[in-house]
Amino acid sequence: MRRGPALAASTAAQPLDYLDFVRAKILDLPPLGVPVAANDVHPILKPHQQALVRWAVAGGRRAIFAAFGLGKSLMQLEIMRQLGAQLGGRQLIVVPLTVLIEFKRDAAMLGMSPIFIRSTAEIAIAAEPGPSGQLYLTNYESVREGKIDLSLFNACSLDEASCLRGFGGTKTFREFMRLFDGMQYKFVATATPSPNEYVELLAYAAFLEIMDVGQAKTRFFKRNSEKADELTIHPHKADEFWLWVNSWAAFVQRPSDLGFSDEGYELPELDVRWHEVPADHAVAGADKSGQGLLLKKDAIGLVDAAREKRDSLGARIEKLMEIRAEDPAAHRIIWHDLEAERAAIERAIPNVASVYGNQELGQREKTIIRFSDGEIQELAAKPVLAGSGCNFQRHCHWAVFLGIGFKFNDFIQAIHRIQRFLQTHRVRIDLIYSEAERAVRRVLEEKWARHKETVVRMSEIIRTYGLGLAGARDVLARTVATETAPAVEGDSWRVWNADTVIQTAALPADSVGLIVTSVPFGNQYEYSPSYNDFGHTDDLDHFFGQMDYLTPELLRVLQPGRRMAVHVKDRVVPSGLTGLGFRTIEPFHARCIAHYQRHGFAYLGMITIVTDVVRENAGTYRLGWTEQCKDASGMGVGLPEYLLLFRKPPSDRSNGYADVPVVKGKPDLEIVDTGEIIRWDSKRADDLVKGMKARPVGGTGYSRARWQTDACSMWRSSGDRVLTPEDLVGKPFKQIYRLFRGWSYASVYDHDGHVALVEAMEARWSLPVDFALMPAQSWHPDVWTDVARMLGANTVQSAKGREEHLCPLPFDIVDRAVLNWSNPGDVVFDPFGGLLSVPLRAVKHGRRGWATELSEKYFKDGVMLLREQDAGRATASLFDLLAEETMEAAE
User: Domain DNA methylase N-4/N-6: where (predicted)?
Assistant: First the structure.
């Protein structure tokens, strides 16, 4: 992914205008290849094939996702021919061995003589390439095992590149990313990238060096904070995502998508027949408590599905033979997944030909070619071996799936070995499954439906905008906010639905008494579809480049001597980005401190806010108990949140006091002898207290006791005794949590005793797995362990069925900041308002609340909460009650 030319100038002495900075974020994918004249493309190619070849060669790094039968192999060969003619040197196409013969046949039509190689040594045997280059073919295994020196080639194409779909988790992906890194001309081609699996598309983009996977996840997807790597596309980012995909990948379902005639390209009708065989309920087994089951449960997991396949094999073979009997002489392909299924097929059908994993590659290739040419009547194969690239349509239009599974891509690939353009027969598909696999069928049909919907969407995009981004840039540019917005106001609050840089610049200087905000966590999340969004940045440097426009305005509007509190959290860096093989931590809070100091804020320190390590592990998969047992050297720690404290220097720096100090009145005093109440505002009052002639009146003013607590004093208590597991077993989790917290505060901390207590609870099956029941509690006031994570605007959002904020700022943090560091009547400002929690709580505590928020959805919901509070519908008791209910549910 490349930024526009203007952004590159930001490193020069003259900084960019802010709106130029924002506009430079608009997706820009410049051509990296060489132009091809229309009359230079081989005349044997159809018009749609010629258009795709010219687009791909000019782009230099492109993906061709052309439907089955549109000539994907021929297009790849022509792309390599064009590059060879212009660049000379060597070009390479990596193919599955099963389609090698197809490529050689197509190459002959183009007058090309590709050389098949399995090692670098075989390149040396061949003659040096002439001025028009030399094309080589190889198989995936040879590349993956490092047998081919890729530095000898200037261009490559991966046929059936769906091998990359296992992003990050397969040896093929990791090796191909490393081996092809930096090659100038790269292409991928597959007929069925799975639109249901976004990570597959991101893997193709990463291989082509269009955009890093982590960056693409941040730009387009909502992270599931409970499950790592579960991606859901932001509804407001869907159009932009598919326009971006269309800029480097061509999803072409038929020639008319590109404006050409569909004559001769009508896809044959598909006749799908489902066959359910009864499950053997005699082996239903037992539930977790040991109670015998009368009926088998649905096989909804991979283990259950595999077990059910074994149990139902006899019934499924019987159904297969029944289906075959309808036309014993027909040519058929029988798809299966297990070796036991292959053995059963061979026993039932002695004349069937089979291909399998440990078969000699030459024999496997010969069998597939003979079936493709009609010399073999029936073929048994796994989709993973023969489901990609093979063309069986000339002599076969009938496939039987002996079983079904969850792998949709393998399934759809297998179907399209025979349902292809130029197939002259109606295609029949029989799918056999067990009664206990109804859930598997349901999942498969849902994925198939989503696949069809996405294919239609991509056809619409390419029909509307054509190939590339040229037609879509104006659409994308409309998401740039350029002006201030009118204020929405209520009782003591004023908020703006606008870009925070533009709106903050319009606020009066020295008008804000306190700034409290939860800054976007770099480019970790995006909150709106606008390019003004701070999360819509390429990396941390780019993020802080945008912050450079905001922070000087924050310093300007803050009153001299007053404070800014910034809520942040460090970030986990995935192992795929570190290159180290394990996750590391980006010290985001440290970057923030340096940033604000650079712009003139004085750093005062930070408050640590403890988080739940068990819940955090669910979101990052880096702190797992199992992984700790495997290798403790890789174990990190739970990441706390921080409240960074900054101050704008006062006008008078001789004593350090703010121009308008945050004043806290001392408590009233009661004269011991007379009972007279006096104000604690003189040296006489100090002397009376020291002489024990007066004492503070509880509940009035800011007490010395509270000051000592706020000034990092220790909480000590005698305590009754250490809790034992017997005290806790059988009690509700919420009660255990509160008892433990009370004991933790009242006792000298004993780490070994803490661990022993928790282990004893686990031994009695009384330890939940989804949250930390007895976390370490802190007695230190700068470590906040009692923040109610559920007490915030998201609680209200969730209760009302609205979209929750990605990184909500808990009310507890806002409350403490507002009460500690502002005066009644002060303006408390949040430049990243979100659900407007800061003005909501500021008004509640007698201050005035201001905020800006870019997201229209969050802004409208936040305004609703403010207006409800104005009307008295969101009272303190209601929030307290709601927090109590949600805490009980969580505990």
Answer: 513-860
Distances (CA, A) of 872 to 844, 868, 877: 11, 6, 11
Q: Which amino acid is at 293?
A: L
Nearest one of 97, 99, 79 to 154, comparing CA atoms: 79
Residues composing the chain: 891
Name the β-bridge partners of 65: 251
Number of H helices, E strands in the chain: 35, 29
With beta carbons less than 8 A apart as the criterion, state whether 535 and 854 touch.
no
d(CA 803, CA 810): 17
Q: β-pairing, 493-496 with 488-490?
A: antiparallel
Q: DSSP labels for 640-674? A: PEEEEEEEPPPS-TTT---SS----PPPPEEETTT
Query: What is the C-alpha to C-alpha distance for residues 734 and 774, in angstroms, rounded to an integer?
Result: 10
Q: Is the pLDDT of residue 458 over 80?
A: no
Q: Which residue has the higher pLDDT, 816 or 497?
A: 497
What mean pLDDT, rounded, does the chain reach? 78
What CATH code is assigned to 270-450? Answer: 3.40.50.300
Tell me: pLDDT of 399 over 50: yes
Whole-angstrom Cα distance, residue 221 to residue 706? 45
Sign of the dihedral defined by the CA atoms of residues 283, 286, 291, 296, in that order: negative
- How confident is the model over 315-363, as pLDDT tens digits? 999 999 999 999 999 999 999 988 999 999 999 999 999 998 888 877 8
Q: Provide the 3-class DSSP secondary structure of residue 250.
A: strand
Q: How many CB atoms lie within 10 A of CB 786?
A: 11
The H or E element containing residue 319 is helix 313-324
- Token duo for residue 613: 């390590």
- Alpha-carbon distance of 569 to 572, in angstroms, equals 10
Q: How far is CA 18 from the centre of its chain?
A: 28
Question: Which H/E stretch holds residue 314?
Answer: helix 313-324
Task: Choose between 799 and 209: higher pLDDT.
Answer: 209
Q: Is 216 left (phi over 0), alpha (psi -120 to 50) or beta?
A: alpha
The predicted model scores a pTM of 0.61
pLDDT of 212 above 60: yes
> Which residue intervals of the chain bear CATH 3.40.50.10810?
38-258
Structure tokens at 329: 């002489």
| Residue 536 phi, psi dihedral angles, 5° rounding | -85, 65
Pick the CATH number of 38-258 from 3.40.50.300, 3.40.190.10, 3.30.160.70, 3.40.50.10810: 3.40.50.10810
**Contact status, residue 91 vs residue 154, Cβ threshold 8 Å:** yes
**SS3 state at 185:** strand
Measured at the CA of 540, the angle between CA 537 and CA 543, to 5 degrees, comes to 45
In the chain, residues under CATH classification 3.40.50.150 are 492-654+781-890
Residue with tokens 């500021």: 842
Strand partners, 277: 434
Give span(s): CATH 3.40.50.300, the chain. Answer: 270-450
| pLDDT value for 10 | 32
d(CA 392, CA 613): 54
List of residues 6+ apart from 219 with CB closer than 8 A: 211, 237, 523, 526, 536
For 529-542, the pLDDT digits (tens) are 788 888 878 788 88
Token representation of residue 441: 């069928």
Q: Does domain 492-654+781-890 have CATH number 3.40.50.10420?
A: no
Q: Model confidence over 661-696: pLDDT tens digits?
A: 998 888 888 888 888 888 877 788 888 877 888 878
> CB within 8 A of 424, min separation 6: which ones?
268
Number of CB atoms found within 10 A of residue 266's CB: 11
CB 157 within 8 A of CB 74: no
| Biggest alpha carbon–alpha carbon distance for the chain | 116
pLDDT at residue 724, as a whole number = 40
Can you give the pLDDT at residue 481? Answer: 85
User: What's the DSSP call for residue 692?
Assistant: T
The CA distance from 411 to 689, in Å, is 84
